[in-house]
Amino acid sequence: MVFQSSARFKSSRYSRGYIVIILTIFILLITYSSIKIVFDSAMYEYQRVKWKADYVRAHFLAQSGLSTAMEFIKKIKQDQLYQFGILNQMIPFQFPGMDGSGTLTLTEETGKINVNYIINFFDDNENGDVRHMLDRLSEHLNISPDIWDGVEDWIDENNVALPHGYEEVDYSMMEPPRRIKNGRLHSLEELLLIPGFDNWLLYNDRRSKYEKEAYSKDFATEEDLLVQTDEDYILANNLTYYIPEKADVDGRKININSAPYHVILSLSDFMSPDVAQAVVKERIKKGGYFQSINDLQSITQLLLPSSGGGTILDEIKGQLVFKNRIYKVVVEVSSGLQSARIVGIYDTEAAKLIMYLE
User: Fold this and answer.
1) What is the per-residue pLDDT across 9-25, written as a single tens digit (0 to 9) for each?
2) What is the pLDDT of residues 83-96, one digit of tens each?
């Protein structure tokens, strides 16, 4: 009897000890889980705040970069922007004492062919001079000139399709259907909505593998590589769509100081590669900048015969300007886990930003 009582007592004691252990472990698990939830929540909140702080810092630093570029434009003489290599170069920068770095790229846009001027502003008809430049550019980059029919139909307000163009009825039958704009482009990416255009056509080097190898640093001189860069063979780098606040109704004016090689080559049917290369080489010798039409008189290749009994220079001089008009500023900044990108378009005659994107 005493033995049975003793056994039941020991069993009861062991059971209570087991329960205490289980309860202790349970309490520890609850405590650990609570601490982990609080810690994870705090870390999440910290990361969220840091993520937000990094974004705000990157955004304001990018705006500072844009303000710096604006000061360059306003206070540095035009010729010095070219001579100091500020234009057409990606300039890296750091923010002393701050967690942030970035790049600033400043380009001048009126040296490119403006696709928005392919249709006249005053009568909704084709601008023949601009169309001919685009046709020549296409031929030099091994692209069919027929694609510009679609661009004309995209911009003009009539509903009559050109031979290789598309109007409202054509877009409605596409898969998926889309609406025609009948207005000016607000980005080069709009071209991708027009049949015939794609990313490869617009943004890739138009040369074949053989052509790239033949014009590599192994076979071309350093001067040749400066005259024709890899970027020159990308269609998008030869085009612009920015319209000044006071639009030039002519639309065919090209800034010879910022014009890429293939745009210069597209100015005239008589502009051969040798002539275009001579123009770019002379521009490089002059620090990247021609002061006036007189600076072009010394380029003997431009004095070769053109149509109508004149010279190539006589033919193209009415198309040329020497003053920067539209600047594009691209600022990209990284700060911690975040980055920001700001694009500003500055019109020198209006003395203000005409476009701001972020």
Assistant:
1) 455 555 666 666 666 66
2) 888 888 888 887 66
Round to whole Å and give the CA distance between 304 and 313. 8
Q: What is the predicted pLDDT for the residue at 279?
A: 96
Pairing of strands 101-108, 90-94: antiparallel
Facing residues of 346 across strands? 327, 353
3-class secondary structure, 229: coil
pLDDT in tens, 294-342: 999 999 999 999 887 899 999 999 999 999 999 999 999 988 778 899 9
pTM for the whole structure? 0.83
344, β-bridge pairs: 329, 356
Question: CA-to-CA distance for 296 and 300, rounded, in angstroms?
Answer: 9
CA distance 106 to 109: 10
The residues near 84 (Cβ < 8 Å, ≥ 6 apart) are 76
Q: Are 332 and 91 contacting, i.e. CB atoms less than 8 angstroms apart? A: no
Tokens of 306: 């053109």
Instruction: Specify the 3-state DSSP secondary structure of 237.
Output: helix
Distances in Å between the Cα of 281 and the Cα atoms of 224, 227, 242, 288, 290 are 9, 6, 28, 9, 12
Q: What domains are defined for the chain? A: 2-109+327-357 (no CATH), 129-231 (1.10.40.60)
